[in-house]
Amino acid sequence: MSWMAWTLPTAIFFTAIGLALVGLTVLEVYRPTERVRGFLPMATTRGDRFFISLLSAAFIHLLWLGLMDKGLLVVSGVSAVWAALLMRWG
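and the corresponding structure tokens:
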């Protein structure tokens, strides 16, 4: 794996996503999901909302990087709040 520049933030990011997927799998076993309709224009499952939150967080970060020269800590907080809102009421 020396071809990739693994840094601590990169390792933390991929570990967090892996743990979230494991957590969602365990939650699915004990509380199976059902399609619900929230503020999104379609009925979604828990996994759908998680995937949409990951994609939208990536786009939020790319937009931030394209428009601002500031650090990513603020936008990471915005993305986390958006993901929480999406997972709860999306």
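(Above: one complete record from the training split.) The two ends are 37 Å apart (CA to CA).
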